[in-house]
Design goal:
The complex is a heterodimer of chains A (522) and B (159). Chain A has 522 residues and is α/β, with parallel strands linked by helices. Helix content of chain A is 42%, strand content 14%. Chain A has 23 helices and 14 strands. Chain B is built from seven helices and four strands; from the N terminus they run ααααβααβββα. Chain B has 159 residues and is α+β, with helices and mostly antiparallel strands. Classes of the chains: A alpha/beta (522), B alpha+beta (159).
Chain lengths: 522, 159
């Protein structure tokens, strides 16, 4: 018997704007014209790991990948490839390219279903292992304490940026009912969209992670706070929550046990600071997203002053495989102090920008050269911005840094959101820093003076530097401002502006000095 | 009066609790012909959830996706993130300012477009990018930008 053919169609924000819906319609028409509607399935899936190539699809079981597909190409793919067994070379993304590119030799734990399953189908998610960890907990009567213990022993650390041990955070949740789990999906760090691809590519993984987290800490209610700009994520997540509830995987007495847990989505409204956990809690309560003073930490007093655990999307997506396969399995990936993998978004001047997942501790050089195909247009690597706007610049000397929480600290850099912006020789660092300072000026919530006044002062200094009207003392003044902000700001937003500013001034000081009017050199 | 009834209808989908405030404001703004939250609408929301109007206004003014002043029928939000900046988003913003004849935050005289910026739209793989209402446009060039404006304006005239 001939194996059934499938066309895996990547449906995400990027392919949507490249016209994937129209291509899908054209493919269906072409299949119908050949009488193949029943024989060949079109499966909508999330990210196929290729970006910048328009509409991307993979024909299975042949494992042939096509890119830049338009409606005009649909009939050709069906007639030539599906019917005639001849690949359409014109559109093909070659295996070498694919291998060298972002699809490279990755270690996918969090993303193993992304781009493989139809994210809108609970059946497909289950066929690929969704809710198996939950079933294991139920069948083997694994206690709450044991789940926390498994996660603690796995060494999983928060993927939102700070790297706090997840198991420890859970165990620090005060014993006071009711408790809440909040999933931080307010992915606002510029240059980052890994969480969006998890939300869009494998929503049931996140739901299962939240059920397990809720069970572990004794919470019966969870919230997923998704930024308002992520329309497709919100839509998919809502459908998946509804499907899970209907299947008895959410709600009262999950899988006919005494575990009860339910989820609601909260839509953000455009405020970067709401990615800070206490600001997010205020926002869910319907207030301005002003960060709270800590302590108390959310584990003691969070949402409606009740014990609350706030975890990032990627962190929670790691929980089901850890519970299913055990801490030792998880620790076989990554480094001793940072086990597991990390999802990175690699962007800027590289051949293959996009999302990758690799072992923690992978060298920056490997990520750029092997997974992203090197600097684009044969350019020279000048540096990179690691971790987004609240991240740090590194120059060539940083290429051999191991990308994990601890190694980066030695370079005064951070893993942060996992964004890597590669810069070639033509990039102006002062201009890029100016964009970052404008961002912080805009996103400072204004609650505390050091951040409110500091972000404004930094932007003014940067403006006069770029206008050629800088003062000889300006570079030192910038350093002084960010140092004050680091020690005096209320929340990580103000505290982290020091990272891009001092790293840029350290690694690329001559570029800033060159902006000073020559008179001030004398 | 017609508007007031419809605001109430939107609110009644939710329990009258501050917990749903942001969702309510999103829905009310979306249903508004001028893409904004009017004083009357905000007062109605406050009434419904049982909060002082000042609390509701305080929340509404905090978030960049809400506007208390009337806006055009289509909201353009161009991404200003570093990855977009690297590939020329700033010159695209200049093109928008020049073509539309408005500054950031301004609305064209014919009421079709309001020009806004976004800190990051989260679609850096297709930088430079912008959103018009719920639609995303990536890999923008000056030509594609102008074409897109034309086509949105064309569709708007048809309505």
């Amino acid at each position: 018997m001939e194996s059934r053919r499938q066309i895996l169609l990547a449906v995400n924000e990027e392919t949507q704007l490249a016209g994937v819906r129209e291509v899908e319609r054209a493919l269906r028409e072409a299949l119908a014209a050949q009488g193949l509607t029943e024989e060949v399935g079109i499966v909508e899936t999330g990210d196929l790991g290729i970006t910048g190539r328009g509409v991307v699809l993979r024909v299975q079981p042949d494992d042939v990948l096509y890119g830049d597909v338009t409606t005009a190409d649909a009939a050709e793919i069906v007639n030539e490839h599906v019917v005639g067994n001849r690949t359409v070379e014109r559109l093909r993304i070659h295996p070498e390219e694919e291998k060298e590119g972002v699809q490279g030799v990755q270690t996918r734990i969090v993303l193993w279903n992304c781009g493989v399953i139809d994210p809108d189908s609970l059946q497909e998610a289950i066929a690929s292992g969704a809710y198996e960890a939950l079933a294991k907990v139920v069948e083997e009567r694994i206690s709450r304490e044991e789940v926390i213990d498994i996660v603690t022993r796995s060494g999983l650390r928060g993927r939102g940026g700070a790297g706090f041990p997840t198991g420890r955070k859970w165990s620090l949740t005060a014993d006071r009912e009711p408790k809440y789990i909040v999933c931080n999906a307010d992915e606002g760090e510029p240059g980052t969209f890994k969480d969006r691809l998890i939300l869009e590519g494998d929503p049931h993984r996140l739901i299962e992670g939240m059920i397990l987290a809720g069970y572990a800490v004794g919470a019966q209610k969870g919230y997923i706070y998704i930024r308002g700009e992520y329309g497709l994520s919100i839509e998919r997540m809502q459908k998946s929550i509804d499907d899970a509830r209907e299947a008895g995987l959410l709600g009262d007495h999950i899988l006919e046990t005494d575990i009860s847990f339910d989820l609601e989505i909260r839509k953000g409204a455009g405020a970067y600071v709401c990615g800070e956990e206490t600001a997010m809690i205020e926002s869910i309560e319907g207030k301005r997203g002003f960060p709270r003073r800590k302590p108390p930490y959310p584990g003691g007093s969070g949402l409606w002053e009740q014990p609350t655990v706030v975890n990032n999307v990627e962190t929670l997506a790691n929980v089901p495989p850890i519970v299913l396969l055990g801490p030792e399995w998880f620790k076989s990936y990554g480094t001793a102090t940072c086990p597991g993998t990390k999802a990175f978004i690699i962007l800027g001047h590289v051949v293959y920008p996009g999302l990758i997942e690799v072992s923690m501790g992978t060298r920056l050089r490997t990520i750029i050269d092997v997974h992203a195909g090197g600097v684009s247009n044969g350019g020279r690597f000048k540096g990179a911005l690691l971790g987004g706007a609240a991240g740090a610049f590194v120059d060539e000397s940083g290429l051999d840094v191991a990308m994990d929480f601890d190694s980066l600290q030695e370079y005064a850099a951070v893993l942060g959101s996992g964004s890597i912006l590669v810069l070639d020789g033509d990039t102006s660092i002062p201009e890029l820093l100016h964009g970052i300072l404008r961002f912080f000026r805009h996103e400072s919530c204004g609650q505390c003076a050091p951040c409110r006044a500091g972000t404004r002062a930094l932007l003014q200094i940067s403006e006069r530097l770029l206008a050629g009207q800088g003062l000889a003392t300006d570079l030192d003044l910038m350093t002084e401002v960010v140092e004050t902000m680091q020690t005096r700001s209320l929340c990580p937003l103000g505290q982290s502006v020091i990272l891009p500013v001092t790293s840029a001034l350290r690694a690329f000081r001559s570029e800033f000095e060159a902006l000073l009017p020559s008179a001030t050199h004398a | 009066m017609g508007e007031q009834t419809s605001v109430r209808t939107i609110l009644e989908k939710y329990e009258p609790s501050g917990e749903y405030l942001l969702d309510m404001l999103h829905d009310v703004q979306e249903a508004d012909a001028q893409n904004h939250l009017s004083r009357e609408a905000l007062r109605e929301v406050a009434d419904y959830v049982g909060l002082p109007p000042s609390s509701v206004i305080s929340s509404a003014t905090f978030y960049s996706m809400f506007s208390l002043t009337p806006r055009g029928r289509h909201i353009i939000r161009i991404c200003e993130s570093p990855p977009c900046q690297l590939v020329g988003a700033e010159s695209l913003l200049d093109v928008l300012i020049e073509t539309l004849g408005v500054e950031v935050g301004g609305t064209t005289e014919d009421g079709v477009f309001t020009l806004e910026t976004s800190s990051c739209l989260g679609v850096c793989g297709v930088a430079p990018a912008m959103m018009i209402d719920e639609e995303l446009y990536g890999n923008l060039t000056k030509e594609r930008l102008l074409e897109t404006l034309e086509s949105v304006r064309g569709e708007d005239d048809g309505v």
